[in-house]
Design a protein that fits this description.
The chain has 122 residues and is an alpha+beta fold. Helices cover 20% and strands 33% of the residues. The chain has one domain.
Length: 122
């Protein structure tokens, strides 16, 4: 028989914090010739260069979670395209936008950004 006084409450738990940043970006000029997958790689590099703490997908090969809502055809300019980034840190959307735009090449620019925070315990 287990003594109920010996049972301790579980105090060690993991808190998963992730912040979703939804943004609008434009792709103009010579950057219209960059493909959808190359644009995802570009955003991945920009996030790493700007030193953001990325939220990685779960699984055998973890990758940063970046979602572009609509894939543009090659050679088409895009204005106000939706993109989502998941980060482990919570920073101001204006600060996120400034740091992100500093690392972007000419022809790609983030025009607006807002964030939503999600936290849960495991």
């Amino acid at each position: 028989m287990i003594n109920p006084l010996c049972i301790r409450p579980k105090e060690n738990f993991l808190v998963l914090n992730k912040t979703t940043y939804s943004a609008l970006f434009t792709k103009t000029g010579w950057m219209r010739y960059i493909s959808h997958l190359d644009l995802l790689r570009l955003f991945n590099r920009v996030l790493r260069r700007a030193d953001f703490k990325l939220y990685l997908s779960k699984g055998f090969n973890p990758r940063p979670v970046i979602r572009i809502k609509k894939a543009l055809k090659l050679g088409i300019e895009g204005r106000d395209q939706d993109v989502e980034f998941l980060l482990e840190e919570n920073i101001e959307p204006l600060n996120f936008k400034e740091r992100f735009n500093k690392q972007l090449p000419d022809g790609v620019k983030m025009s607006s950004c807002h964030s939503e925070r999600e936290a849960r315990r495991i």
